[in-house]
Amino acid sequence: MTAHAVDLGHVGKIFAAGAVTALADITLTVGAGEFVSLIGPSGCGKSTLLRIVADLEQPTSGTVAVHGKTARQARLDQDYGIAFQQAGLLDWRTVQENVELPLQLHRVPKVERRARSAELLAMAGLSEFARRYPAELSGGMQQRVAIARALAREPSLLLMDEPFGALDEMTRERMQGELLRIAGETAAAVVFVTHSIPEAVFLSDRVVVMSPRPGRISAVVDTGGRRRDADGDEIRSSTAFFDAVAQVRAALHGGVRAAAGREAR
């Protein structure tokens, strides 16, 4: 693997035969094991950018590399796991069978599948629910299953599009801690889309702030790379945390004002 999990060079995306410019001149690198959040106003292209990295959308211009490979090759090689706002579990499969699905599709022997799913469910704190069905789990537990499934093939990159957006605040904070623990244990790089400034700051090594459409990178805020095993409440009440939140908020507001100025001209 290369030193960078993701390399984006001057990426642009235009939809509807030139009618909508979603992204313009996005240049960004994400290091191996680094946690980077994308934040910006609705419609700024955060999810589109994530889908381009995942090879689910094609850029109109620029270059995309995942661990030194093309995005297509990285997808074929299963170099990343992906999780969305909805867990997307299969209702007719047990928790264990949902986690095993990527392994089954790649014809991993049953004994190995069971061992890997047991390992992941233990990591996610869900061992006792292995034989339950998704409908029997809370929303937060379903998301943990989805994250476990995304990690099934030990990807070196995890792509996440607002996976905690529908959760209540207490569950959301608990899941943030779980995600940091899992990312730390697996050493996976993470690209995480969110609308929440505190969430972005809490989770990330760097927060990438995007401007209103066409989405551009208006600022990158370094949060200081907090220790993954630190107490969450302690982090959220620290001066450094509030300072970083203020920096991201100022960058967001500045990007909105700049975009408004461009439109006025």
TrEMBL record:
CDD domains: ABC_NrtD_SsuB_transporters. Keywords: ATP-binding, Nucleotide-binding, Transport. This is ABC transporter ATP-binding protein. The keyword Translocase does not apply. Residues 6-237 form the ABC transporter domain. The keyword Transcription does not apply. Signal peptide: none annotated. InterPro entries: AAA+_ATPase (IPR003593), ABC_transporter-like_ATP-bd (IPR003439), ABC_transporter-like_CS (IPR017871), ABC_transporter_ATP-bind (IPR050166), P-loop_NTPase (IPR027417). Pfam families: ABC_tran. SMART domains: AAA. The lineage of its organism: Bacteria, Bacillati, Actinomycetota, Actinomycetes, Mycobacteriales.
